[in-house]
Specification:
Elements: H1 13-28, E1 44-49, H2 55-66, E2 70-75, H3 87-96, E3 101-106, H4 111-118, E4 122-128, H5 134-148, E5 155-159, H6 166-177, E6 181-185, E7 201-203, H7 206-210, E8 215-218, H8 234-241, H9 245-248, E9 256-258, H10 271-274, H11 282-299, H12 303-306
Parallel strand pairs: 1-2, 1-3, 3-4, 5-6, 5-8, 6-7, 8-9
Helix pairs in contact: 1-5, 1-11, 2-11, 3-4, 5-6, 5-11
Bound molecules: phosphoric acid mono(formamide)ester.
Length: 307
């Protein structure tokens, strides 16, 4: 397996299956009284977050700690980045302090790739601009497989701000590799040109996307990546692309609801849908994120690649 995880496109089908199967075993640890393994004892994992995060940062921290690594959490606020220090100098400084693996989130697409060229340790992409979020795709695939028992042949509809989403790009790379059928749905202004070439079906109606779907994955409107709204108003967006209980009635009765978070309730999803105890797996995604990131740190940043 590659020493870094920059893009879901870099994972072979076998790599992805190994990560999912390893995560399956590690997930069982969560039921034990002592949740720790000694695998990364003596190694240092740095969480280098230049953009806000709740789930990903805490989940990587929990994953590294459960593997007994030392964890350093770096956030831009209060660091010398605020005084103009570059990404390269920041990374080299952390490496000089003994970082074996760096988990990076950055607003610039390509930042993890640049970082991988500067440091000797492992680099894991925790989200770069609108480019990729590979561990989110892995935890999504894990959750789908856990719930539906398979990935091949599963109909996954991803609905929302396709144009600005790193989650969708990583999911398309991974899910198509695992032979799932992927549909993306959004108003035309939120669909990037030529996305069909990634092997997905494109529709411009929520009802069409929901019909026949086994998995309905809702995405947030990434207001922070849009100069101005690409549609008339958030209310109008909700009226046409918000997943409401009424619209959900048109879906397959067993379809599951996913969302990578953070959610904007009342914009892309109604609270009754997000909190539906039978169909919503949104909190399961969060739980599974820890086991999946443990598997990634173990297989990519663990003894296999460092020793
Ligand atoms: N899904 C996700 O990346 O969430 P955070 O931004 O909270 O990390």
């Amino acid at each position: 397996m590659n020493r870094h995880l920059i893009s879901a496109a870099d994972l072979s089908r076998d790599d992805a299956l190994l990560i999912l199967d390893t995560a399956d075993e590690l997930a069982r640890m969560a039921d034990r009284p002592i949740k720790k393994l000694p695998t990364l004892r003596g190694r240092t994992v740095v969480n280098l977050f230049f953009e806000d995060s709740t789930r990903t940062r805490i989940s990587f921290e929990a994953a590294a700690k459960r593997l007994s690594a030392d964890v350093i959490n770096f956030s831009v606020k209060g660091s010398s980045v605020a005084k103009g220090e570059s990404l390269k100098d920041t990374a080299l400084t952390l490496e000089a302090m003994g970082a074996d693996a760096v988990v990076i989130r950055h607003s610039a697409s390509g930042a993890p790739q640049r970082l991988a060229g500067w440091v000797r340790g492992t680099v894991v992409n925790a989200g770069d601009g609108a480019h990729e979020h590979p561990t989110q795709a892995l935890l999504d695939a894990f959750t789908i497989r856990e719930r539906l028992g398979r990935l091949a042949g599963v109909n996954v509809s991803i609905i929302g701000d396709i144009a600005h989403s790193r989650v969708v790009r990583s999911n398309i790379h991974l899910l198509t590799k695992m032979k799932a059928n992927v549909t993306v749905a959004a108003p035309p202004t939120l669909i990037p040109a030529e996305i069909e070439k990634m092997g997905v079906r494109v529709v411009h109606s929520l009802d069409e996307a929901v019909k026949g779907a086994d998995v309905i994955m809702m995405l947030r409107i990434q207001l922070e990546r849009q100069g101005k709204l690409s549609f008339p108003s958030l209310r109008e967006y909700y009226n046409t692309f918000g997943l409401t209980p009424e619209r959900l009635r048109r879906a397959n009765s067993e379809a599951i609801i996913m969302h990578p978070g953070p959610m904007n309730r009342g914009v892309e999803i109604a609270s009754d849908v997000a909190d539906d105890p039978r169909r919503s797996v949104i909190l399961e995604q969060v739980t599974n994120g820890v086991a999946v990131r443990m598997a990634v740190l173990y297989l990519i940043g663990g003894a296999h690649n460092i020793e």
